[in-house]
Amino acid sequence: MLSKGRLVPNFFSAPYADVRVVGIPRALLFHRYGALWTTFFEALGRTVVVSEPTTRDTVAAGTALSTDESCLASKIFLGHVDELRECCDAVFVPCYDNEGARRAFCTKFQAAPDVVANTFCDPPVRVLSCSVNETADKQDARQAFLSLAMKLGAMPKQAKHAWKAAVRAQQEAEKAACARTKATFDAVRRAEEAGEAPLTILLAAHPYLTYDPSIGGTIAEMLRNLGANVVMACENDRKKTLAASFDFSETMPWIVNREIIGAITLLHDAVDGIVLVSAFPCGPDSMTDDAIVRCIQGKPILNLTVDAQSGTAGLETRVESFVDILRYQKRGGYIHGEA
């Protein structure tokens, strides 16, 4: 209803006013926007429950609920939803389509609300959602979340306050990530000044792979245990990495893949090697990873594809071999592939 030109929530415009506990799966875009989401709902007076980090049981549950064609990340996502359905009033599953032209998300993020609603239909899971689509609906994240706040029964002032708090939290989280990258390179520089030859490796993967302990977290731990300094592609300034990606391709549609490629471009000369990780059978990665391996020259790249059946033994062997090669090359054993 309208009051003095402002939209005021009522019974019909606030269908989620009774939702007091919001569940958020620790998967997919949570690893990109987790700070924004949790702060937003908490600022609206809701209790937020985030699922626990991924375990073997999470992967098994998600795999059992998924179709065979689903990528590993999507299977893990459903495993996290399954964990939450008994401990919240509604599960937050947003629909992220794009953040503008050439800044699209994978279709799994667009379909996520429908997939969850149809997978968990007996008994049904209540899905709390919003849609971000800047090219078709002209609805950016701010508009989408303000609309969601109204559906939760918030007044306009409260909704705007919650959004501002969420943006601040997200900015601080991104600054902290960039600070970790800077700290790593500062440590490398100090070691070099002391006459050492530290090995620095860029872990290039989607955030939901990089931060998931069952995927990227395992690989990062392997690298560190072998004495390498690990830099995450997703822990760099997003605006800079996105801008840099257009030097690589003008037409690539996916924003996260653009940021990965941009980080590789910007950090190419500052690292000794690149570990490129993908979840089988990711569609965007199947194209962009091939382009990276073919077109990024002068730096060794280890391309790893992980699925629900992957064990750690094979990964350890490949990672150890890659690190050995990088160390040998750093000592002068290889020059541009020549012994």
UniProtKB/TrEMBL annotation:
<dbReference type="InterPro" id="IPR051805">
    <property type="entry name" value="Dehydratase_Activator_Redct"/>
</dbReference>
<protein>
    <recommendedName>
        <fullName>DUF2229 domain-containing protein</fullName>
    </recommendedName>
</protein>
<dbReference type="InterPro" id="IPR018709">
    <property type="entry name" value="CoA_activase_DUF2229"/>
</dbReference>
<feature type="domain" description="DUF2229">
    <location>
        <begin position="22"/>
        <end position="232"/>
    </location>
</feature>
<dbReference type="Pfam" id="PF09989">
    <property type="entry name" value="DUF2229"/>
</dbReference>
